[in-house]
From TrEMBL, chain A:
<feature type="domain" description="4Fe-4S ferredoxin-type">
    <location>
        <begin position="163"/>
        <end position="192"/>
    </location>
</feature>
<keyword id="KW-0411">Iron-sulfur</keyword>
<feature type="domain" description="4Fe-4S ferredoxin-type">
    <location>
        <begin position="131"/>
        <end position="162"/>
    </location>
</feature>
<keyword id="KW-0677">Repeat</keyword>
<dbReference type="Pfam" id="PF13247">
    <property type="entry name" value="Fer4_11"/>
</dbReference>
<dbReference type="InterPro" id="IPR017900">
    <property type="entry name" value="4Fe4S_Fe_S_CS"/>
</dbReference>
<keyword id="KW-0479">Metal-binding</keyword>
<dbReference type="InterPro" id="IPR051555">
    <property type="entry name" value="FDH_Electron_Transfer_Unit"/>
</dbReference>
<feature type="domain" description="4Fe-4S ferredoxin-type">
    <location>
        <begin position="32"/>
        <end position="62"/>
    </location>
</feature>
UniProtKB/TrEMBL annotation, chain B:
<feature type="region of interest" description="Disordered">
    <location>
        <begin position="1"/>
        <end position="39"/>
    </location>
</feature>
<feature type="transmembrane region" description="Helical">
    <location>
        <begin position="163"/>
        <end position="184"/>
    </location>
</feature>
<feature type="transmembrane region" description="Helical">
    <location>
        <begin position="204"/>
        <end position="222"/>
    </location>
</feature>
<feature type="transmembrane region" description="Helical">
    <location>
        <begin position="137"/>
        <end position="156"/>
    </location>
</feature>
<dbReference type="InterPro" id="IPR052049">
    <property type="entry name" value="Electron_transfer_protein"/>
</dbReference>
<feature type="compositionally biased region" description="Basic and acidic residues">
    <location>
        <begin position="1"/>
        <end position="18"/>
    </location>
</feature>
<keyword id="KW-1133">Transmembrane helix</keyword>
<dbReference type="Pfam" id="PF03916">
    <property type="entry name" value="NrfD"/>
</dbReference>
<keyword id="KW-0812">Transmembrane</keyword>
Length: 317, 339
């Protein structure tokens, strides 16, 4: 059993069934979160836009990345929801990819060759595979053990009564320590502002009983909001259904309280490995190793003192 | 941005030096296939999202933060040296060490405030005291250490309040080693692979490098007759630095690679040569002032190069997803589980 298992403990990692309780809310409402089911995401970016609108996030440059339809690239101070577009040569739940697909050659043949009647086979007769698109709306994971929150020296990152992680903007001093501490690369420092910003899981909306703007705007219910326990239940059922339907690649990411961050408050149903979507395969809260780090630093400090005093102790020269 | 071209060989201009590869398998193929520009890490096989970083790199200016690490080390070890010299009756050695500690810690605070943008923001650090935040611990450490160091220096200059001066010197010497080593925890307690993976040895590397810097400064300034401790410390500190660094790199796996490549690699190599050279020079510097100054300069430069090299390597490891994804993927496979 890990240290985290005892309820209300100030654990650095491991399962934590009562996140808000451990943070000092005795009568907290149930912990809430997001379940993002990427198998139904259509990449419409309604969530990105709704988030920007509701939270009045400044524009962060209008650029074409040229790599895909994803012109936002990733999460940061000015992007709290980010839709990833993964272009792949492999059918959903289908066989292994075999060799390169020349999309340009394929495109040049379009309309010239006689189109096959009926459903298009996923694997063409010459062994080539079709392209597929994976889309996934990424967001702050509101980790059970949040590296960002642990390392913040000012206390501006805090745990809300809903078990989510929020930055208090009037206290953040812009030290930027939370930025490299997040194992998912979520939080970012805003140019010209100096402070850091990230998803608040619409703390202001939660307070008045509304669901977060992204979940509200999602037309396919790819983003689902609710009590975390309920979402986990729903997610497991969904994976089972997809597996039964032959989509064997479907898997949950971040939902297990046994993972490196004690279970994410925002978890995902993915159709491929996490790294394909730009997510770390096995993230760990860095604070997990902190006791060992302090021990080693103390030992090093003692060593340093011994070296200096030893150097001075010899006869005078 | 100038835009990018989609060509038969992949996307050009999106991110220099990258193929727009996606997918676990696509990534593997793309890296072996030899299409497009040479990948940064050729033999690694991993999937990534268009080669974009998985974690965020630290938003710090190298000069501010690496400078802060270096000056903190110099100050901490100098305080110790000053106390040791004072205890063993070597005023000629104690004086420069004491001054070095006061000067270095003032400059390092200036670097920190510059990084924060506004002086008042340092005060926010003292709102709370959090053992889970190395930066919070460090702020409190500095809040206690800096005044002690400055008092020690001021009483020495004034030539009065000897008792207060002695107490301040002793206090600074007690906190000094912590000031020199906590910065290693500051770096390690992040998701940056080349910093986090070294969390066991990095404090020893920093301790050794701090000793080298303090010895170097004292060596260059103190009269040769009293510089014996500095000469011995130069050798011991450098041995600790190089030994711990070697062990660290051996144990880090893939995350050690940035220490041997590019600018970080050059800095680390320079640091090793300068520190080792400085230590050797210091041994034969007892009778030659010029040698002592050269040894001191080499040791100081070596310590600085080490901090900048470690900082740089961390940034490199944060920017390339291979350092985040591959070790985690291997860890996961070793555990035999899927996410
Ligand atoms: S995902 Fe990153 S920013 Fe979000 S709570 Fe976890 S550590 Fe903090
Ligand atoms: S940048 Fe702000 S929120 Fe992040 S660690 Fe520093 S004070 Fe805390």
């Amino acid at each position: 059993m890990t240290e985290g298992a005892d309820r209300g403990g100030n654990a650095l990692y491991g399962p934590q069934p009562d996140v808000s309780g451990a943070a000092g809310y005795p009568d907290a409402p149930p912990r809430v979160g997001f379940f993002t089911d990427t198998s139904v995401c259509i990449g419409c970016k309604a969530c990105e836009v709704a988030c920007k609108e509701w939270n009045a996030i400044p524009e962060d440059g209008l650029e074409l990345t040229g790599m895909s339809y994803d012109n936002t690239r990733g999460l940061g101070a000015d992007t709290w929801r980010h839709v990833a577009f993964v272009e792949q040569s492999g059918p959903s739940g289908g066989p292994e990819v075999t060799g390169d697909v020349d999309v340009f050659a394929a495109a040049s043949r379009l309309g010239t060759a006689a189109e096959p009647a009926g459903p298009v086979p996923l694997v063409s007769p010459d062994g080539r595979t079709e392209l597929r698109w994976l889309m996934s709306s990424d967001v702050c994971k509101h980790c059970t053990h949040a590296g960002c929150l642990d390392v913040c020296p000012t206390g501006s990152l805090f745990r809300t009564e809903f078990g989510t992680v929020v930055v208090q903007q009037d206290i953040c001093n812009g030290c930027g320590y939370c930025v490299p501490a997040c194992p998912y690369g979520v939080i970012g420092r805003r140019e010209g502002d100096g402070r850091v910003w990230k998803c608040t899981l619409c703390y202001d909306r939660l307070g008045v009983g509304l669901e977060p703007a992204c979940a509200k705007s999602c037309p396919t219910d790819s983003i689902q909001f609710g009590p975390l326990d309920e979402l986990r239940e729903r997610a497991r059922e969904r994976v089972a259904r997809l597996h039964a339907a032959g989509v064997t690649d479907a898997r949950l990411y971040g939902e297990s309280p046994e993972d490196g961050v004690g279970g994410a408050g925002a978890f995902f149903l993915l159709l491929d490995e996490p790294e394909v979507y730009g997510l770390p395969p096995d993230p760990q809260v860095t604070t997990r190793d902190l006791p060992a780090m302090w021990r080693h630093a103390a030992a090093a400090a003692v060593t340093l003192a011994a070296l200096v005093l030893g150097s001075c102790a010899r006869r005078k020269r | 941005m100038s835009g990018s071209d989609v060509t038969r060989d992949g996307v050009r201009g999106a991110r220099p030096g990258r193929d727009a590869v996606t997918g676990g398998r696509a990534g593997r193929r793309g890296r072996r296939g030899g299409r497009g520009e040479r990948p940064v890490v050729p033999e690694a096989e991993f999937g990534s999202y268009y080669g974009l970083p998985v974690i965020s790199k630290p938003p710090w200016e190298p000069l501010d933060i690496a400078g802060y690490l270096y000056l903190g080390g110099l100050a901490g070890a100098s305080s110790l040296l000053a106390a040791g010299a004072r205890l063993t009756g070597r005023p000629g050695l104690a004086a420069p060490a004491r001054t070095a500690a006061a000067g270095a810690i003032s400059l390092s605070l200036a670097a920190l405030v510059h990084d924060l943008g506004r002086p008042a923001r340092f005060l926010y650090m003292l709102r709370v005291c959090k053992p889970t935040s190395p930066m919070s611990v460090g702020s409190w450490l500095l809040a206690a250490y800096a005044p002690l160091t400055l008092t020690a220096a001021a009483t020495a200059v004034a030539g009065r309040y000897r008792l207060l001066g002695a107490a301040a010197t002793a206090g600074a010497a007690v906190l000094g080693p912590a000031v020199a080593t906590y910065t290693a925890v500051l770096l390690s307690d992040t998701a940056v692979p080349s910093w986090h993976e070294g969390h066991r040895e990095l404090p020893f590397v920093f301790a050794g490098s701090a000793a080298g810097a303090a010895a170097g400064l004292a060596l260059a300034v103190a009269p040769a007759g009293q510089a014996g401790p500095a000469r011995r410390l130069a050798v011991l500190g450098t041995a600790l630095e190089l030994g711990a660094f070697h062990t660290m790199k051996r144990r880090m796996g893939l995350a050690a690679r940035p220490f041997g490549q590019g600018r970080a690699g050059l800095l680390v190599r320079a640091a090793e040569l300068l520190s080792a050279g400085g230590a050797v020079l210091s041994l034969c510097s007892a009778r030659d002032r010029r040698l002592a100054v050269a040894a001191g300069a080499a040791l100081l430069a070596g310590s600085a190069a080490l901090r900048f090299g470690v900082f740089d390597a961390g940034v490199v490891s944060a920017e390339d997803p291979v350092y985040t994804v591959l070790p985690q993927r291997e860890r996961l496979e070793a555990r035999g589980s899927r996410p």
